[in-house]
Design goal:
9 helices, 231 residues, binds S-adenosylmethionine, seven-stranded mixed β-sheet, Rossmann fold
Length: 231
Amino acid sequence: MNQHTLSMRLERVAANIPVGARLADIGSDHAYLPVALLRRGLVAAAVAGEVATTPFLAAQRTVRDNGLEQHIKVRLANGLAAVEPGDGITAISLCGMGGETIRDILESGKGYLGGHERLILQPNGGEQPLRLWLMENGYAILSEELLRENRFYFEIIVAERADSVKYSPKELYFGPLQMQARSAVFLAKWQRILREKQKTLASFERALQAVPEGKIQEIAQQARWITELLA
Ligand code: SAM
């Protein structure tokens, strides 16, 4: 993967960035996503934010090697602190991090959000707490995509502020739009997770030390929900 050839995962993220956007890619690592989008003429400008020095330097190098310093600002900053008022950001991508990490970045960076930005989120797990944050902060899920690459499942969640947002506990768990669409990859993902939950419950029964009842009930309920979903 590089600034020319993105992974399938980042290609699908790229496809969800509105054409002409002013993008803030937070946790940009090598800045492959903003550089590829700029090279293709698909975004007007970008900020690549990184909290860690090594990926920050890598992002600077990619931008410099592509002669894009005028169009992509690379900033060493924690989360949304990479965004400055003058950037006029219209889309924010947070990709390749756990859903809880993305949620925490959004929560602690609320002050940097104008409310009009489209969020393009690609969590690696932890989708439920991320969707809960979106709902509690008035973001409606506009689209959800699930893909499988190298045996891993990846979700892409696109959200924007809306007047009234309410999702049921099951919608937060499975994804409201994915539940409706029931794609083959979605069903395969939940079949795999059901097998894992059943194994976990069986291991609880064999465990030498008592597993807290609340934990058993939580996993048992998730297994019931998935069984109902797949029925
Ligand atoms: N976004 C790229 C992708 O999807 O391929 C890179 C993903 S990489 C696994 C996660 C990156 O997020 C790391 O480079 C890490 O330093 C950065 N990161 C983690 N927490 C961050 C934060 N609070 N603010 C900015 N960057 C962060």
